[in-house]
Amino acid sequence: MTMGRAARQAVVDIGSNSVRLVIYGAPERAPITIFNEKELCGLGRRDPKTGELSERAMKQALKVLGRFKAVCTEMGNPNVRVVATAAMREAPNGADFIEQVAATGFKPEILSGVEEARLAALGVLSGAPDIIQNSPTARSHLCGDMGGGSLELVRYSDDFLKPVALSQSYELGPLRLISQYGPIPADAEKAVHKILKKSQWLTAEKTETLHAVGGAWRALARIHQAVQNYPLKTLHHYQMAREDIIEICQLVEKQSPEGLTNIPGIQRKRIETLPHAAMVLRLLLELTKARNIIISSFGVREGILFDQLTSTQQLEDPLFAIATEYAVRLNPNPQMGGKLLQFLDSLFVGETPRERHLRQAACSMVDIAALSHPDERPLQACETALRAPLVALTHGERVALAASLFYRYRAKRVDLPQTIPASLMGQEQWQWAERVGLAMRFASDLSPKSGHVLGPDCFVLTEDKIIFRLSADMQPLFSQMVHRRLQLVAQSFERELEVIR
């Protein structure tokens, strides 16, 4: 599979609460953020009588957009799309403000609520394709995008290329609720519940998972991580049980602004809106009875980029796309991964499609620490996998992938260091990580940085043995040290080793 390498792309998102510029680099299927800046301008804090955008908010937003235009120029004028959402499409002076935005040199467009919902759902799907791919329960997944002025909800379909089954945009953003009902969330609760309950499609089908988008809901997840003393700070694909997040929402709803300032990780400018966002999330979870909530770092902006791809590109594996990008940038021989994957196939016979999916990513990243100091390579490889913007994998799978790269650089079977959050892995994932890592270590020592002699069907896995067929091409490379590496692989599989020359 050949992954496309795109020119830089950018999205300017003029939202009801924040104005943000994100610039993306390769790969096309899973663009990596190389610049990300926002300013909370509060355009959604409109005049309660006229509904107009405030002069102060518009002035601040235009100043920010002027900087963003200069940043785009500094970064080579990437292809940029500028979108505006709820506050601009509803305010009487929204069109006038858009004309002022155009004067900065950008070409802004106002998204309808339906289009905003569709793009948010595409963004989530781009980073979590298993919502539909290989899933018999795609319609049990709901996407929710909480902005400052509106809430967009989407029920996924069973068709990956036409993923929106049902959608609706609601005037339930926290800035709007504060403007209409005041600063106390309880005063708006009955109205919010009534509006959501009218949408019978929300409860007509079972909801297993709510995929949450938006800065306010991500802030709630940060609080949950702090309460749980969670060992990995990555928010993308962070999963919470329904009861746990409802408890967090109830806590936040009751907090005063002073109380919220004592919670670490919450931006001061979010303090005003967070209780209302928590109230809406709680009501949504209570109504749909969703069993869990998964945070997505992807949303409308990533949906815009995903929407521009061909159907063939959309169907590509985003985890493999990013792993390949790291291979191209860091591996001395980026082609090693594909040869290594096939070489080890006969050793991992019987693995699930999901396990092979992860092993493919591990093989692609096999030499990502090659340019580091030898003493630091195990932890460097591991840390890269833990912190890289990988998608389409759970946190447990992320840790397992990182652990496999740690074992790839270790010369013997050892316990994982404390810096690796092994508690997020199950025992089977840990075993998988050790086996994959030690197997990659053996293959990398047998055919360093090239993979020329790594052919298929070299392994035979029996009930009590690993039989390795040593080809004529391999024999000059098969030293005593390489033999020891292979013995470690056999030990990890709890089998005896037999080498056939």
TL;DR?
The chain has helices at 55-74, 86-90, 94-102, 113-127, 174-181, 186-198, 201-204, 215-228, 242-253, 257-261, 274-288, 300-307, 311-314, 318-330, 336-345, 353-364, 377-387, 395-408, 427-446, 480-492; strands at residues 9-14, 19-25, 32-39, 79-84, 108-110, 141-146, 151-156, 164-170, 209-213, 239-241, 292-295, 459-461, 465-469, 496-500.
The domain count comes to: 3
CA radius of gyration is 25 Å
In the predicted model, the low-confidence regions spanning at least 5 consecutive residues are none
Number of strands: 14
Task: Explain this structure.
By secondary structure, the chain is an alpha/beta fold. It has helices at residues 55-74, 86-90, 94-102, 113-127, 174-181, 186-198, 201-204, 215-228, 242-253, 257-261, 274-288, 300-307, 311-314, 318-330, 336-345, 353-364, 377-387, 395-408, 427-446, 480-492, and strands at 9-14, 19-25, 32-39, 79-84, 108-110, 141-146, 151-156, 164-170, 209-213, 239-241, 292-295, 459-461, 465-469, 496-500. The protein folds into 3 domains: 9-110, ATPase, nucleotide binding domain (Nucleotidyltransferase, domain 5); 113-302, Exopolyphosphatase. Domain 2 (Nucleotidyltransferase, domain 5, 2-Layer Sandwich); 318-500, Hypothetical protein af1432, CATH 1.10.3210. It is built from 20 helices and 14 strands. Helix 6 packs parallel to helix 11, helix 16 packs across helix 19 (427-446) and helix 19 packs antiparallel against helix 20 (480-492).
